[in-house]
Specification:
This is Cytochrome c oxidase subunit I. InterPro entries: Cyt_c_oxidase_su3-like_sf, Cyt_c_oxidase_su3_a-hlx. Keywords: Membrane, Transmembrane, Transmembrane helix. The protein is elongated and about 55 Å long. It is mainly α and 133 residues long. The protein has five helices and no strands. Helix 1 runs antiparallel to helix 4 (102-126). The protein has a single domain, classed as Cytochrome c oxidase, subunit III, four-helix bundle (Four Helix Bundle (Hemerythrin (Met), subunit A), Up-down Bundle), CATH 1.20.120.
Length: 133
């Protein structure tokens, strides 16, 4: 689950990088970051699924809770991927510019939440099972 956390944080960092470099007028670098960000987020989705794929959610409440947490994380990551692709498309079609970047700023704000959620979920899925007898 640590790789999902790492990839989620990398997706967040790429989104923040895109916002910062776009604001400074480096549009091509911002677009590159907006290509990298959803790829990292998709990797986080993939690795999060692998973290719980062997658990049977109907066998006990604990695996069911872990599955629910993973699904909730994947839903948020998927929404973030859509938002990042929307900003990339907006940049390519001239709607997200260094001067008019509200969409990118709002998506970055959302990714602050997703990064924190990814870290907390990764801690619960990866660390908490080791604490139980």
């Amino acid at each position: 689950m640590t790789s999902a956390a790492l990839l989620g944080v990398l997706a967040w960092a790429a989104t923040v990088l895109a916002r910062e470099v776009n604001q400074r007028g480096h549009v091509m670098l911002a677009r590159l970051a907006l290509v990298l960000a959803p790829l990292c987020a998709a990797g986080a989705v993939w690795t999060a699924w692998f973290a719980v794929r062997d658990l049977d959610p109907v066998s006990h409440v604990y695996p069911a809770i872990l599955w629910a947490l993973m699904i909730w994380l994947v839903v948020h990551l998927a929404a973030g991927i859509i938002m990042q692709c929307y900003c990339l498309a907006g940049s390519l079609f001239g709607k997200v510019t260094p001067r008019y970047d509200a969409d990118l700023r709002n998506v970055t704000l959302y990714w602050h939440f997703v990064a924190l959620k990814t870290l907390v979920t990764a801690a619960v899925l990866g660390l908490v099972p080791g604490w139980l007898p």
